[in-house]
Amino acid sequence: MNQQALIAILLLSPVVGFFLNGLRFRSKNYILAGTIATLAVVISFVCSVLLFLDLVGMPPEARRITANFFEWIAVDKFKVNAGFVVDQISSIMILIITGVGALIHLFSIGYMHHDKGVTKYFAYLNLFIFNMLILVLGDSLLTMFVGWEGVGLCSYLLIGFWFNDSAKAAAGMKAFITNRVGDAAFIIGMFILFMTFGTLNIHELNALAPTALEASWLGAVTLGTLMLFIGATGKSAQIPLYVWLPDAMAGPTPVSALIHAATMVTAGVYMIVRLNPLFISAPNTMMVVAIIGAATAVLAATIGLTQHDIKKVLAYSTVSQLGYMFLAVGVGAFGAGMFHLMTHAFFKALMFLGSGSVIHAMHEEQDIRKMGGLRKYLPITHATFFLGWLAIIGIPPFAGFFSKDEILWKAYSSSAGHILLWAAGVIGAALTAFYMTRLMALTFWGKSRVDKNVHPHESPISMTIPLIILGILSVIGGWVGIPHVISQYLGEVPNFWEHWLAPVIRILPLAPAEHGADHEALEWTLMSVSVGVAAISAISAYIMYTKKEGSADRVAKAFGPVYQLVNKKYLVDEAYFKGLINPLIRGSKNLWYYVDVNIIDKATYKVTDIVRGGGSFVKSLQTGNMQQYAMYIGVGVVVALSFVLMR
Amino acid sequence: MMLSALIFLPILFAIVMAFWPQKNTVRHLAFGFSIIQFILSLGMLQRFDASSAALQMVEKSVWIQRFGISYFLGIDGISVMLVMLTTFLVPIIILGSWNSIDKQVKGFHSALFILQAAMLGSFLAMDAILFYVFWELSLVPMYFIVGIWGGTRRIYATLKFFIYTMAGSMLMLLAIIFLMRLTPEVTGGNISASILDFYKLNIPFIAGDFLTPQTLLFFAFAIAFAIKVPIFPLHTWLPDAHVEAPTPGSVVLAGVMLKMGTYGFLRWVIPLFPEAAEHFAWLFVLVGVIGIIYGALVAMVQPDVKKLVAYSSVSHMGYILIGLFVMNTYGVNGALYQMLNHGISTGALFLLIGMIYERTHSREISKYGGLAGVLPHFTIAFVIVTMSSIAVPMTNGFVGEFLILLGSYAFSPIVAAFAVTGVVLGAAYMLWMVKRVFFGPKGELITNAEHDHAHALHDLSAREFAVLIPLIIMIFWMGLFPNHFMDYSKASVDHLVKNKMDYSIPMSTNTAQTGER
Amino acid sequence: MPETNIITTIGPEHYLVLSALLFSIGMAGVLLRRNLIVLLMSIELMLNAVNISFITFSHYSGKVEGQIMVFFVMTIAAAEAAVGLALAVSIFKRFKEVNIRFFEHLKG
């Protein structure tokens, strides 16, 4: 089939689904709504697969399918088309979005069946898929930005889906506004790049990207990419704009899986990979990206240690894993970043859906302190969650191992890397292993703390099928990118991932010191360190939370104030409110009261007072006494006459 | 004849309306008339040649010979879309105020048509005095619309509105007379009030010296338009006028009348006084930026929905002002586009607020809450319009705002950096309001209405759908295919931006056919 | 023009001084008297004072226009007296009052 038509169907199928469901949003027929929506995404998935196969059939350098539908904005030199491009990077993304998306749609049918707004829910989900596809397929930064804001909008709608709860509506609003802060920077970044290169087309920008590194902080490329990165910190929940993501868990759980784990939040990483030639030429930006990524990875992981809400733990875990991805792209390991993006999409979507299954079984209970021993009630959920757990803590040969290991290796070995970045990554890995094991232990293992009135039950088949598929993917998903050090013992399995991305990724040279022959040994060492640390950490968490009851509380007590601080998420939300939002609102009230009402209006009244004062003086001359008027006339005549005569 | 028909047909309508004997068919008649007018303007658009920057469909005949005042109408890319906006909004306004205006219905619709004529006249007039006449004429019906059909403090608001605008127009009249006295230089001895002759004038300008003719004239015009726009700190009449005005009054005010100010900048101030405009551009860009931020901040803390939207207008008009005064093709194109967007999205917001006010008789945000569960269709419409107002891509607001910001970045990155905060603040005040009105637990008003069956809340009626759907279609049409609209103005705007120092509008070559009388 | 003696020869100055005197008396009456009827009479006085100076100038300059003017003034004066008196009478009928100070309704 015509490739342009394929792209059109790929994009429009979710739109059709959106309208079919959106126009009858009050219907409670969850089967129909779910079928329409899932089918729409499945059609998109089929298109994605066909497009992917088309790409595979092309020679590696020419793997690029473009579709230009119409000219969107054209003013003078600024021309942006509604143009879309499928290439090595975006083809992977559309496969993830539509593939994982379809599974999550399927899962939602079971999960949302009792909800009044189920049709509306599916309409939103389809709208989200559409916007996400625009984001990844857009051939220019502005087209990407359309999807970028569009997914933010859908995220807003879906987080606040149960709008009767004020806190949930507030969470949606918080997500949108925080994202807007990033978006504002993104806009500025686009301007900088447009003014420098005269285009926003990603392909052209990458071709125009200077090959020489830009040393200055104030260079156009550095500033432009930094601004784009600030945009990415909003969308991908990095320091300092990560605060919205944990709150975003107010939305339905499949939404958290789709938007806040697998797809939307990775948009920032995707954007940087997309523009990798530009980012490479701005080493300062790269450094910032890597540091922010590493810091977020560690900070979010520490918060994850202390949370009691199953979804909050996963949310902080997502923030932390996104930090890994930024660490990867920040050290120039774009392939590794994308790799982790994909594996993370598999195992985190799995874990979110698994948590959804748990919450469903527990009748909307999300506090892990009230769970425990669920393994025997939810065998499938437990089994698949178990696979996800192994994947995220990086146990070989599960998916997360390969991608995380690749990142850590590049963080150490790349010329943009640093041993501290690597160390942060390893600490993050240890923390991840700890809180994930804690989550497993408190939820599925140990003694049951379930309330007597709650009778957990395994979820229906429409929910377990996606879990199983994602579970399988969490196991095998990493096998497409097996590093050379390992694959040489497996009969030289080629590293598909690297080959696939190679034509569109600029590669930083290895640091000079690492060119030596022993770098294979080093890679083995680093790998065993990170796996070892994670394993030890996981085992200690296992002991602490299943074998030795109460030890966790003792540890928490021992840390005292530190524990409290972490438990309260370092008080970042409070600081934002105290330092920024409340003063802004107070200040605005003062502006309104003082400037508008008291200065501007009062000044106007002063003018009217002057006019009125003048009027009342003139008024006093009119006494009603006719003889006085006659006198004025007389005096006036005399004055006028004498004036004439005197001249 | 086309343009005269556009202006005078509404006046004829107004007269017919005033003497219409049947009271209960007045609204239908008015709606029919406004549709006729809209179709007529579509016919005008059909004949409009978008590829040329020339003044088209020119009509010129002598009015007051002694002072060189003529009846001179013309249309070009700068005004054509504003004319369309005016004729597009009036039927919607009439339909939207079907129930809300229940006293002196005939008078109201007469006033509305006279207002329409005056607004069209000021967009089409190419003679300074004619322009002034229409400009002032537009005040009169608005004065009555607010003063008769307005809220409780309507007299205060309408006086404030009238006096503010009047104060500005006096300055403008003085400046026009001054300019007319200069015209013999360029016309060979005859005094003239034609804008084309004004454009030829070479008004002395000395940078740094305030008391030069061009600077003074520039400020005389600029202040007149600035009050109308309105620009911070001359904006305080606007929230009052909006709050007290009846819904249709607010829609006309926000939708079209504010654009008369920005149009004035584009038609009169910048091309007439290019040196002064360039020299003082920073000042207007600065107040534009202040307006954006100030309007947004103050909007955020308003307790009244309508006042919130009124302050958001101040913020949006700040964008337009920046776009005009950065004076590059992105900024001006964006500003012109944003004028249309603001007309549609803010107009729609006022209509929506009017609809909910008809149901609950309150506009206080704190009394609402949980409306989304009761009025889902209304909520959907409101959220769509909100998205347009905060410039989410694929809606019209984004295109204009983005181009303006791009223009401001080309002017100075610092301006862009400050202006872009409006993107965040805009989202903040609108979404916060949406959250408090539509989401959360059911508020006082909603629960009262649920207990009181006589005042139960009904979702959108068919008539209200008919009001909103055209607006929503426009929101997406303009957001997805901006070229369909921008193409009409591009030639003129490019011509203005490129030749602003030595500006003149060429007369279209087919004047002979279109302009004969 | 021969030397004029202020005592023996009557010249234009005498007429003009008379006119000025009469005018001043009339004006004083208009400004100071309270009675509406007296006021009207004072106005007549002023008009006639003007007439005198018209005739004086007409006579001494040998032109006729001044005297024509006087006819106009007399006509006007007559008309004015008629209207004025009619108004005065009807005001009196309505308010039973001729004191001009009583009518202060136009006080600002």
What does this structure look like?
The complex is a heterotrimer of chains A (647), B (517) and C (108). In chain A, 71% of the residues lie in helices and 3% in strands. In chain A, strands 1-2 form a two-stranded antiparallel ribbon. By secondary structure, chain A is mainly alpha-helical. Chain B is mainly alpha-helical. Chain B has a domain of 210 residues. Chain B has a two-stranded antiparallel ribbon. In chain B, helix 3 runs antiparallel to helix 12, helix 5 runs antiparallel to helix 7 and helix 16 packs antiparallel against helix 19. The longest helix of chain B has 32 residues. The C terminus of chain B is likely disordered. Chain C has one domain: Helix Hairpins. Classes of the chains: A mainly alpha (647), B mainly alpha (517), C mainly alpha (108).
Topology of helices and strands:
The complex is a heterotrimer of chains A (647), B (517) and C (108).
Chain A: H1 3-22, H2 30-57, E1 64-75, E2 78-87, H3 88-111, H4 118-137, H5 141-159, H6 166-197, H7 202-208, H8 220-235, H9 244-247, H10 253-262, H11 267-274, H12 276-280, H13 283-304, H14 310-330, H15 334-361, H16 379-392, H17 399-413, H18 419-443, H19 461-476, H20 484-487, H21 496-501, H22 519-547, H23 551-559, H24 561-567, H25 572-621, H26 626-646
Helix pairs in contact in A: 1-2, 1-4, 2-3, 2-4, 3-4, 3-10, 3-15, 3-19, 4-5, 5-6, 5-10, 6-8, 8-11, 8-13, 10-15, 11-15, 13-14, 13-18, 14-15, 14-17, 14-18, 15-16, 15-17, 15-19, 16-18, 16-19, 17-18, 17-22, 18-22
Chain B: H1 2-19, H2 26-47, E1 56-64, E2 69-75, H3 77-96, H4 105-124, H5 128-137, H6 139-149, H7 154-182, H8 184-187, H9 195-200, H10 213-228, H11 237-244, H12 247-272, H13 274-279, H14 281-300, H15 305-326, H16 329-360, H17 371-374, H18 376-389, H19 396-411, H20 413-419, H21 421-438, H22 444-451, H23 462-480, H24 483-498, H25 511-515
Antiparallel strand pairs in B: 1-2
Chain C: H1 12-32, H2 36-61, H3 65-95
Helix pairs in contact in C: 1-2, 2-3
